[in-house]
Amino acid sequence: MSDDQRIYIPSRPLKESDRFGLLSGFDPGTRMLEAGYQVAPPFRPIPVEIVFEKDVAVTLRDGVTIHVDVFRPAGAEKVPVIVAWSPYGKGQGTSPSVMGVFDLVGLDNGIMSGLAKFEGPDPAYWCAQGYAICNPDIRGVADSEGDSVLWDRQEGRDCYDLIEWLGVQDWCDGKVAMSGTSYLAVAQWFTAAEQPPHLAAINPWEGVSDVYRDLVLRGGIPDHGFARQLRDFSFWGNGQKEDIIAEADRDPLMSELWEQKIPQFDRITVPAYVVASYSNTLHTAGTFRAWRRIASEQKWLRIHNSQEWPDYYDQANVEDLRRFFDHVLKGVDNGWDATPRVRYSLLDLEGGDRVDLPAETFPPAGVAPTRYFLDGRSRLLTSAAPADPSTAAYAIGVNPDEVSFVTRFDRETVLVGYPKAHLWVEAAGSDDIDLFLLVQKLDRFGTTLRQFTVPNQSARVHDVTERGASILRYTGSDGRLRVSLRGLSDALTPDDVPEHSFDRTEKLAAGEVVAVQIELQPVGLVFHPGEQLRLVISSRSLLGTMMPGIREYVTANTGQVLIHTGGEHASYLQLPVRGE
Fold it and tell me: 367-578 belongs to which CATH class?
């Protein structure tokens, strides 16, 4: 792809942002941090002596110079190094933005040393375990040269160059790994696909794996709320930054630009410890997609029941990650090989979640795709398709602007795997439909069940999750699709996970009834006897925004939407039901 396909806008200096921390200023040199050093209250002191090399210049293959911070254990022993690749500022650990995020989700800032990148590994812990940490300011960020790009194969090539530079440093044993959540996870897919020789392992902890399908045009719908937040408040530097929203407006269909923002999964072969959840409306689909497609023969998946930040910094999970890195980077015989290839969770939403359930695959063995048919008359989900045709309809912009269908379980039922919907739909008074779907759990009285994913359950978090901030409170498995982009990709679509090609537009004619398949987020959910499942269909976003303070999507659709059921238009919801 030629660089002129990207659209750039001016960036702003990092020091003007709330991501500027105590160690963000440009100040090259080597420092010795004594055991007990504390960067500032409330952060915890470091337990061992650390060599801190600040603002080290690294030249990439095209001549651009970036700057990295390296934290490594004092002493002559050579150690492996873990890279935290993101645009968030390598000295951000003490910044107002990081401290604010920890406060929002209910984490104590004192669990960190303040030396870590946002969403990255803490040098205080890892240096004490015999590892170095490298925090780069990537291309276009802070005092690094060049123009920044967003989740692109260019980042994979840049990080390749950094890894190869690190691998031959006189303090490095030649083994380089990567770790981190969100952006730091996404970068790992792109980097591992470039196959740098010194890269020995990756640890993607929830992150998108397709910018078109996961971020800017999920389901073909131009919902740019979080993309705008990412563009405007994540890339701070002295050059230019990529305008992902202008690109999405210009290229609403799959193009070469979007193809370059999909990693080459079949080239990812290094050992991988992948972490996912069912509840992150930004990351879930992409993490599971990447897990399915990467070619690594040694790959492990853990599906947790909370949110990525509390999960990543939980001490037991940090120790679990160390077991993986000790085994694959240092050759330690610590029993990691006996770790189940999949550890999954089942959500109860009533205090009875089950975690760390072992399996060899996901979905686990014994799961059967089971169809529940929509009945437009009774508004029930039934085991057999209704013989008589009927419709359920809603008008856009009025109340109610949704239709739903329910089923009640008479015995304990476990859903674990990939749901999807197959609907027959018609637009009255329009030539297109934006469809938003949500699968909810109801108690036996019909009350919708939801569950916080973060430790903070204060009034403030109730407020921000009432109509949004969906990654902080789990409401159910959702999906979305613009009907004119319903064409499926034969190359991408496995049996139970429909993926659309997004390469053509097929508008609806008056009176035309068309079939659509809609991918829903992976699920692990337990229903007790008497509890119910509800499928909601609407043309507005049923979960609101991903995070607080971002703009909510408003559909341009008008008119009425008809969901056809029964007869020759037997719409159904397919659920992954585990056998007894």
Answer: mainly beta
